[in-house]
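Researcher: We plan to redesign the surface later, but first we want a full-length starting point. C-alpha coordinates attached.
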Protein backbone atom coordinates (compact mmCIF):
# COMPACT_ATOMS: atom_id res chain seq x y z
CA UNK A 1 0.00 0.00 0.00
CA UNK A 2 2.82 2.40 0.87
CA UNK A 3 4.49 1.70 -2.48
CA UNK A 4 1.30 2.48 -4.39
CA UNK A 5 0.83 5.70 -2.43
CA UNK A 6 4.44 6.70 -3.11
CA UNK A 7 4.00 6.00 -6.83
CA UNK A 8 0.78 8.04 -6.97
CA UNK A 9 2.50 10.87 -5.14
CA UNK A 10 5.46 10.82 -7.55
CA UNK A 11 3.17 10.84 -10.59
CA UNK A 12 1.13 13.69 -9.09
CA UNK A 13 4.28 15.72 -8.49
CA UNK A 14 5.38 15.17 -12.10
CA UNK A 15 2.01 16.26 -13.43
CA UNK A 16 1.97 19.33 -11.19
CA UNK A 17 5.49 20.20 -12.34
CA UNK A 18 4.41 20.06 -15.96
CA UNK A 19 1.20 22.02 -15.56
CA UNK A 20 2.81 25.45 -15.31
CA UNK A 21 5.13 24.53 -18.18
CA UNK A 22 2.20 23.44 -20.34
CA UNK A 23 0.23 26.56 -19.46
CA UNK A 24 3.22 28.71 -20.36
CA UNK A 25 3.32 27.34 -23.92
CA UNK A 26 -0.42 27.83 -24.42
CA UNK A 27 -0.30 31.36 -23.06
CA UNK A 28 2.65 32.19 -25.28
CA UNK A 29 0.50 31.31 -28.28
CA UNK A 30 -2.37 33.43 -26.95
CA UNK A 31 -0.09 36.42 -26.37
CA UNK A 32 1.45 35.95 -29.82
CA UNK A 33 -2.03 36.06 -31.37
CA UNK A 34 -2.58 39.62 -30.11
CA UNK A 35 -0.89 42.21 -32.37
CA UNK A 36 -0.17 44.38 -29.31
CA UNK A 37 1.88 41.64 -27.65
CA UNK A 38 3.19 39.78 -30.71
CA UNK A 39 6.98 39.46 -30.81
CA UNK A 40 8.74 37.87 -33.75
CA UNK A 41 9.78 34.32 -32.86
CA UNK A 42 13.32 35.08 -34.05
CA UNK A 43 13.73 37.32 -30.98
CA UNK A 44 12.81 34.45 -28.66
CA UNK A 45 15.20 32.14 -30.51
CA UNK A 46 18.06 34.62 -30.10
CA UNK A 47 17.34 34.93 -26.38
CA UNK A 48 17.05 31.16 -25.99
CA UNK A 49 20.34 30.71 -27.87
CA UNK A 50 21.99 33.20 -25.47
CA UNK A 51 22.92 35.61 -28.23
CA UNK A 52 24.36 38.85 -26.95
CA UNK A 53 23.03 42.30 -27.76
CA UNK A 54 19.57 41.12 -28.77
CA UNK A 55 17.53 44.20 -29.63
CA UNK A 56 14.18 43.73 -27.95
CA UNK A 57 11.14 45.27 -29.62
CA UNK A 58 9.30 48.00 -27.72
CA UNK A 59 6.43 45.63 -26.89
CA UNK A 60 8.58 42.84 -25.45
CA UNK A 61 7.64 43.83 -21.91
CA UNK A 62 3.96 43.86 -22.89
CA UNK A 63 4.34 40.30 -24.18
CA UNK A 64 5.97 39.14 -20.94
CA UNK A 65 3.30 40.96 -18.91
CA UNK A 66 0.64 39.20 -21.00
CA UNK A 67 2.18 35.93 -19.85
CA UNK A 68 2.49 36.81 -16.17
CA UNK A 69 -0.96 38.39 -15.90
CA UNK A 70 -2.57 35.36 -17.54
CA UNK A 71 -0.80 33.09 -15.06
CA UNK A 72 -2.11 35.39 -12.28
CA UNK A 73 1.46 36.10 -11.20
CA UNK A 74 0.64 39.79 -11.66
CA UNK A 75 -2.73 41.49 -11.51
CA UNK A 76 -3.88 43.80 -14.33
CA UNK A 77 -2.24 46.74 -12.54
CA UNK A 78 1.08 44.92 -12.37
CA UNK A 79 1.06 44.04 -8.68
CA UNK A 80 2.55 40.63 -7.93
CA UNK A 81 0.41 37.99 -6.28
CA UNK A 82 3.08 36.34 -4.14
CA UNK A 83 0.81 33.47 -3.06
CA UNK A 84 0.08 32.43 -6.66
CA UNK A 85 3.71 33.02 -7.63
CA UNK A 86 4.90 30.77 -4.79
CA UNK A 87 2.45 28.06 -5.82
CA UNK A 88 3.62 28.13 -9.45
CA UNK A 89 7.30 28.18 -8.54
CA UNK A 90 6.59 25.39 -6.05
CA UNK A 91 5.45 23.22 -8.95
CA UNK A 92 9.01 23.17 -10.30
CA UNK A 93 11.06 23.83 -7.13
CA UNK A 94 10.51 21.42 -4.26
CA UNK A 95 12.66 23.23 -1.67
CA UNK A 96 10.25 25.58 0.12
CA UNK A 97 13.10 27.75 1.39
CA UNK A 98 14.23 28.33 -2.20
CA UNK A 99 10.65 29.03 -3.29
CA UNK A 100 10.35 31.69 -0.57
CA UNK A 101 13.72 33.20 -1.47
CA UNK A 102 12.90 33.37 -5.18
CA UNK A 103 9.44 34.85 -4.60
CA UNK A 104 10.80 37.53 -2.28
CA UNK A 105 13.69 38.34 -4.61
CA UNK A 106 11.83 38.18 -7.93
CA UNK A 107 8.20 39.19 -7.37
CA UNK A 108 9.01 42.87 -6.86
CA UNK A 109 6.49 45.52 -7.81
CA UNK A 110 7.76 48.35 -9.99
CA UNK A 111 6.11 51.50 -11.32
CA UNK A 112 5.96 49.98 -14.83
CA UNK A 113 4.17 46.61 -14.95
CA UNK A 114 5.91 45.52 -18.17
CA UNK A 115 9.35 46.27 -16.70
CA UNK A 116 8.37 44.35 -13.55
CA UNK A 117 7.35 41.32 -15.63
CA UNK A 118 10.64 41.31 -17.56
CA UNK A 119 12.66 41.76 -14.35
CA UNK A 120 10.71 38.87 -12.82
CA UNK A 121 11.71 36.47 -15.61
CA UNK A 122 15.32 37.65 -15.56
CA UNK A 123 15.38 37.00 -11.82
CA UNK A 124 13.94 33.51 -12.30
CA UNK A 125 16.72 32.80 -14.80
CA UNK A 126 19.38 34.07 -12.38
CA UNK A 127 17.95 31.69 -9.77
CA UNK A 128 17.79 28.77 -12.22
CA UNK A 129 14.00 28.49 -11.99
CA UNK A 130 12.08 27.59 -15.13
CA UNK A 131 8.30 28.03 -15.17
CA UNK A 132 8.29 27.66 -18.95
CA UNK A 133 10.24 30.68 -20.10
CA UNK A 134 13.31 28.66 -21.05
CA UNK A 135 11.38 26.73 -23.67
CA UNK A 136 10.07 29.93 -25.19
CA UNK A 137 12.69 32.57 -24.39
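Model: Full-length starting sequence:
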Amino acid sequence: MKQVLALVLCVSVLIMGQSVLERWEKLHDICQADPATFVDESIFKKIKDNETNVELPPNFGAHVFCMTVNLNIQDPNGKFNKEVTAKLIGEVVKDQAKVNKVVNECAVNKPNKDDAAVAFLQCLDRNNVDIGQRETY
